[in-house]
Amino acid sequence: MGVEILRGFAKEAIQKSVALTNFLCCLHLTNTYLFTLVLTYGPSMLPTLNMTGSLLLAERFSTRLGKVGRGDIVIVRSPVVPRRTVTKRIIGMEGDSVTYVVDPQNSNICDTIVVPKGHVWIEGDNIYDSKDSRNFGAVPYGLLEAKVFWRIWPPKDFGSLRQRAD
Amino acid sequence: MGSLKFLWDVSKSCLTAGLISLTFSDRFASIVPVRGTSMSPTFNPITDSSIKSSSDDYVLLEKLCLEKYKFSQGDVVVFRSPSNYKEKHIKRIIGLPGDWVGTPHSYDVIEIPKGHCWVEGDNSLSSMDSKTFGPVPLGLIQGRVTHIVWPPQRIGEVKRSIPPGRLPFS
């Protein structure tokens, strides 16, 4: 009798753990290949994203298929601190010539460069307080991780993120 | 009815196996082929008898190092090409942030910027590496090569080593 009970118990335990593993794998694959949630904070994307924190939904297939373009907000692995990711807007794709203000706080001297092959030029919407391509140059396309398309938090701004009107 | 249930069971276990193996290869380790001779003699060695290498080496790519992006000089890594994100290269790390490396053909010495590394192929004659495109962001690295797993006569560990004369100054 004892053996029977034990066997039934073991069978159920195996079934449960397989189901749990399946669930975790699905979660990982969805997060890696389809959609991911990102929490952003800081002043660099004002006024589009607020300073105290926004919860955003981002999709992975556009970056994977090379379908992102100028004006898209993207999640980029930081070229300076590889463990961090930053949220910026794409200003120029490869081959574009980009004019930017070198030091907007002190002067309005502009500089123009051509984005090299396989790179993108990213900037924060708040050019006065943002560490972006103006500091570290154009970033390789391979550092792009996802494209932001939906805002979840704060709830009053729930909805899709439109392109910047300019 | 019985055969239909059997088919359902088989496809269910296939799906489970696929899910688990894909997750495992994403997070922990995967096996990738090495193409080209830029890493000879470590991978795909060129022998005198046969100029074209007979077969590609298959190597084990460990991905746990991506949690912290901690590497050391001499590690062999796979990274996305900085000029084309669809291509992947396999090279050896020569210098890490803060190191100074000399470029072999000129007398320039450059400091590697924060968050970047200097990579070179073991076969300096035919290799597209940092000598052509400069320092590479660590964020492009996809994993560290630890073992050769195929062909059988070449199974073994990949040693962490720096070619003599390429030691960086720090």
Automatic annotation (TrEMBL), chain A:
GO biological process, one term: signal peptide processing
Ranges of residues in domain Peptidase S26: 22-101, 112-153
Superkingdom, taxonomy of origin: Eukaryota
Compartments, as annotated in UniProt: Mitochondrion inner membrane
GO cellular component: mitochondrial inner membrane peptidase complex
Active site: 44, 88
Protein's UniProt keywords contain NAD: no
Pfam families: Peptidase_S26
Keywords (A to Z) from UniProt: Hydrolase, Membrane, Mitochondrion, Mitochondrion inner membrane
A Gene Ontology molecular function term of the record: serine-type endopeptidase activity
Family according to the record: Belongs to the peptidase S26 family. IMP1 subfamily.
Function recorded in the entry: Catalyzes the removal of transit peptides required for the targeting of proteins from the mitochondrial matrix, across the inner membrane, into the inter-membrane space.
Binding partners and assembly: Heterodimer of 2 subunits, IMP1A/B and IMP12.
Protein name: Peptidase_S24 domain-containing protein
Gene source species: Cephalotus follicularis
TrEMBL record, chain B:
Gene3D superfamilies: Umud Fragment, subunit A (2.10.109.10)
Domain called Peptidase S26: residue spans: 8-101, 111-150
Record GO cellular component, one term: mitochondrial inner membrane peptidase complex
CDD domains noted in UniProt: S26_SPase_I (cd06530)
Swiss-Prot/TrEMBL keywords: Hydrolase, Membrane, Mitochondrion, Mitochondrion inner membrane, Protease, Transmembrane, Transmembrane helix
Main location per the UniProt record: mitochondrion
Active site: 38, 91
Superkingdom, natural source: Eukaryota
GO molecular function: serine-type endopeptidase activity
Membrane topology: Single-pass membrane protein
Subcellular localization: Mitochondrion inner membrane
Any one Gene Ontology BP term: signal peptide processing
Family: Belongs to the peptidase S26 family. IMP2 subfamily.
PANTHER family: MITOCHONDRIAL INNER MEMBRANE PROTEASE SUBUNIT 2 (PTHR46041:SF2)
Protein name in UniProt: Mitochondrial inner membrane protease subunit 2
Highest classification ranks of the organism: Eukaryota, Viridiplantae, Streptophyta, Embryophyta, Tracheophyta
